[in-house]
Amino acid sequence: MSVVESDNYEPERRARRLAGPLFGAACLLATLTGVVVLSVVLGAVAAAALGHGSQHPWYAIGPNAWKLGRFLVSLTQKFSEDAGFRAGVYGSLWLLALTVLFAVPTGVGAAVFLEEFTPPGRLRRAIQMNIANLAGVPSIVYGILGLALFVRAFGFESFALGRSLWAGALTLALLVLPVIVLATQEALRSVPSSLRHAALALGASRWETVRDHVLPMAVPGILTGTILAVSRAIGETAPVLMVGAAGSIDWIPNGPGDRYTALPVEIYNYAKEPGVEFQSVAAGGILLLLVILLTMNSIAIVIRNKYRVPTR
Amino acid sequence: MNLPVPSGSVERPRWPAPSRFRRYQGPVMLSLLAICALVTVLTTIGIVAVLGLETIHFFRESHVSLPAFVFGTEVDPPKFGIFPLIWGTVMVAAGASLIALPIGLLSALYLSEYAPRRVRAVLKPALELLAGIPTIVYGFLALVLVTPLLKACFEPLGLKVDSYNALSACVVVGVMIIPMVSSLSEDVLSAVPRSLREAAYGLGATKFEVSTRIVLPAGLSGVAASFILAISRAVGETMAVVLAAGRMPNVTANPLRSVETMTAYIVAITGGDASYGTPKYLSLFAVGMTLFVMTLGLNILSGLILRRFREVYN
Questions:
Q1: Partners of residue A127 in chain B, C-beta under 8 Å
Q2: Closest CA of chain B from A47, distance in Å
Q3: Cβ–Cβ of A140/B39 closer than 8 Å?
Q4: For residue B293, how many other CB atoms are within 10 A of its CB?
Q5: A23: which chain B residues are within 8 Å (Cβ-Cβ)?
Q6: Are A22 and B215 within 8 A, CB to CB?
Q7: With CB atoms 3.0 to 4.6 Å apart as the test, which of A19, B8, B142, B201 could cross-link to B168 if both were Cys?
Q8: What is the ipTM of this complex?
Q9: Are B130 and A34 an interchain contact pair (Cβ–Cβ within 8 Å)?
Q10: What is the CATH number of the domain that holds B287?
Q11: B190-247, pLDDT tens digit by residue?
């Protein structure tokens, strides 16, 4: 019986020993790019918004923090000295409310219909595929749809909504609908079926089972998905730009039939102007937008982590 | 034996008869829910109808033939060649993929294979926050941060950098789709059964070997599908590209020049002075149709890959 030399047990031992940690380090670095980018984004925007040009170093944020309040309060004006985003903030809040009003009931309803009332089969597969594809349609295509369907109503003047908040909100609602449906389905699926069986066995109808037992259990999941979806809608620029949020409006909409402007659209209008002053105003708007969105997203993540159903 | 024999008439408990409200609530709600589901179907029909009808309208008004539309190299009316726009779109998407796909895949591997649980608990929400940053912010960053950096890098070398250029668009769009690649891929990689990993470890494989030769091949179809979805997202990206790449429909391989993408063209037409019904205005629908077909094709391809090549473990 020959003795195998010990080296043959581990061929290329050194290479293997080396490759592992190197690869691990590369993976860690790749993951950290995300975190780095996040901090660069926040830092650069804060510096551009609150820093004072070349007179102060980028970290001189403190003395200029009052500017943030000005951005919130002041109405849009082309003069950058006194420019602000009040009209845009109001417009975006209107859009947010109306979008939630249209999209959430419809999205949750569609998801409940698919998950709880449609037997698995061809119909369900077809609708499911349709929703998955809708979720991948670029947002600007929804803008085109909204332009033709809501703003102009194919040229039927009496049905056209014009460049009103209605048209903007309906467009955004269609945009987030598939995302809300997918999130709600996910939440409904995580409700254990024993719950349904118990309710049905006690004589509840299928609708009563859904209304009284399944939906309440799924609320945290639905809430998380909805907040994430709606916060995406509020950050969208392209579709709102397409359906006619005007750039330079310096009044606040009184009702959903009014013309409006949205925060991202105002940011775009400032950002595309040449000149450092305009860019610092744009950065101020972005700061406002990021504060709103990151708050919404953090709330969603907290809700999810708090109510996460333990996996068995 | 003396069992109590039930007498003829047993008093059965009386349940209240279901009220009319209760009887009708179910069916009424069911039809309302069905209408909700119908809305999603109608949205698809609406998109296809709007784009299709207005595209036909465009071809009728502008007297441009389909080949001239697709291969024409002059964007301005009355030629309406879309080729430079497709070129710009593909260039930005390709550059963005070069950045996002490797980084996204590596970070997915890190999150699913390497990261300790506590690190993961911090990094995953951070990546989600990154995914929640609106695209206009990335466009702004391209303008005030990336392009000046590129100028500082390349102009000493004697290369001219346009103030709107394709490379900065590639960088910001690439960074933007990293979270998408990493979170979709990570889902797939985490779903690879543990037994496969443990078998490999049992045979003496290192972590590197398990990651690259066991987990990655097992999740390959899902990773490929996530890549394609990310590319589709880059193709449809609008605001970052509008602010970064500019509005010059050049057909060039030089990433430091300005290019125009399909999405940028659509935004420019809506913001411009072309009035409704003119061929120039209608061309936005034709470009939108092209964009829709491209992204839909990519999305369907991604779904096919996922279904056709999925490894099923029991």
A1: 37, 40-41
A2: 11
A3: no
A4: 11
A5: 208, 211-212
A6: no
A7: B142
A8: 0.88
A9: yes
A10: 1.10.3720.10
A11: 989 999 999 999 998 888 899 999 999 999 999 999 999 999 999 999 999 999 988 8
